[in-house]
């Protein structure tokens, strides 16, 4: 049989950030000195199947995720990401999905460039390329080149990916436990602004472990504060209110320097677990202005 599974092209590993639901908006600071600073790093995660509905007939899933961040709070951040899975069904059929993306976001979150490609069994099925900018009047607009050339406005309150992570960390540090926002990350067809809600748990401090596959990675994070976070993603126009079900949810441990581990991606019919098995934390470039 053919696997009737939506490929993970809609996965947004950048954490959700936003306005506290039902309360006063959480303002993202424009000051580089007070904004959260992300650690340049390269992280490799092993992927495996968590739970799956019998209706999907998934017997196994393996894969790997690579996430690399470079840059600084002054010069902006570049992100290269690859998410590759091999799903197998009960009849021995398989489907290999390979999502590749790269982006750059200015330190002030005024400009965002993005490119993403999704391959299924080595065939390109989706490509998105474009840029988004904050205009002088504060409004935001997107110039999409692929899959179709067009320019359109988006909400001035919509956050870009790195801006999301910074805002979520600042919210966690401030003791906020519920956090919601519209986000634009250029994924899928490149013309969607998604609504997200985040639940932030109590802070903890990382301690090095003596054994286990995450031993080396956790040693590099020893002493860092982290929070358990669950982010729900909703299709545009649905909203994060009432009884609406999210398109999917992402749960993870978020560290104060922007690194994440112990992820679970929940699509409703199945889940994918991501375990951090290799982490290289790099020295950030100093600000030159």
UniProtKB/TrEMBL annotation:
The keyword Signal applies. It comes from the Bacteria. Keywords: Signal. InterPro entries: EipB-like. The keyword Signal applies. Residues 1-27 form the signal peptide. This is DUF1849 family protein. It comes from Roseibium suaedae.
